[in-house]
Amino acid sequence: TSNSKHAELIGSMFHCADLLHIAHLKSKSYAEHVALGDAYDSIRDAADDICELIQGYCGLLDIKIAESSYAEPIAYLKAERTEYTSKLSEYSGMMDVQNKLQDLLAVFSKTIYKLENLK
């Protein structure tokens, strides 16, 4: 159902935040530590906002969050950015959700910039 598709999206966002939180805690670079801290906070907030928006359209979702372990943050964020970009068209009927997803993509891009360029 579309509700399970929405629940999977939200679960993947919280999973993303958890993975970045683990990378944040393992970081030995102050700039990386700060960038990842900002990112996981922003992603968790975005997931919460997007979930509430979708539930305004579809009712309560049954969200499951996968178990998390360390992932290399730059490659992971680039893959997530591609994945979420592909989902944008699925939310064309929910412009508020689509706008929040675009904001989330901006968080990914900004974090990738910081991780690649600020040491």
Helix content: over 70%
Number of helices: 4
Please describe the biggest sheet, giving its number of strands, its sense, and whether it closes into a barrel. none
* Span of the ends, CA to CA: 44 Å
Q: Mean of the pLDDT scores? A: 95
Looking at the structure, what is the overall shape?
A: globular
Descriptive overview:
Helix 2 (30-58) runs antiparallel to helix 4. It is globular and about 45 Å long. The termini are far apart. It has helices at residues 2-26, 30-58, 73-87, 95-117. The chain is mainly α. The protein is built from four helices and no strands. Helix content is 77%, strand content 0%.
Quick synopsis:
This protein has helices at 2-26, 30-58, 73-87, 95-117. It is mostly helical.
Question: What attributes does this structure have?
Answer:
119 residues; 77% helix; globular
Layout of strands and helices, then pairs:
Blueprint: H1 2-26, H2 30-58, H3 73-87, H4 95-117
